[in-house]
Design brief:
The chain is mostly helical and 103 residues long. The chain folds into two domains: 59 residues, Orthogonal Bundle (Arc Repressor Mutant, subunit A); 37 residues. It is built from four helices and no strands. The longest helix is centred in the C-terminal third of the chain and has 33 residues. The protein is elongated. It starts with 9 loop residues before the first helix and ends with a helix.
Length: 103
């Protein structure tokens, strides 16, 4: 039976982390109070600290940390490079095919 997945809003995650940081309760206690798994609150707290240290928003609402413009550009360029490589390989095969035909 597949697991059901629940997506929590960025506000919910931020509030959970705020509760951990200000209430003096453990991540496990906050998780029980909110009705989520312990590891989720721990993960959200780590993400919050990591993103805060980097000066980025803690939660983007997409389930993954937000990408910088540079990271987005790199991903786009990597896709374009892969397409160019595939086109090059097709052209190499076509040249070899037509060179064989002309003999």
């Amino acid at each position: 039976m597949p697991k059901s997945t629940t997506t929590h809003s960025p506000e919910f995650k931020s509030e959970a982390v705020r509760l951990v940081l200000t209430s003096g309760k453990s991540c496990a206690e906050i998780a029980r109070d909110l009705g989520v798994a312990d590891y989720l609150v721990v993960r959200w707290k780590k993400q919050h600290h990591a993103r805060e240290a980097a000066g980025k928003p803690a939660f983007t609402g997409r389930g993954v940390p937000a990408r910088t413009e540079q990271e987005t550009r790199i991903t786009q360029l990597e896709r374009e490079l892969e397409i160019a490589r595939q086109e090059r390989d097709v052209l190499k095969k076509a040249v070899a095919f037509f060179a064989k035909e002309s003999r």
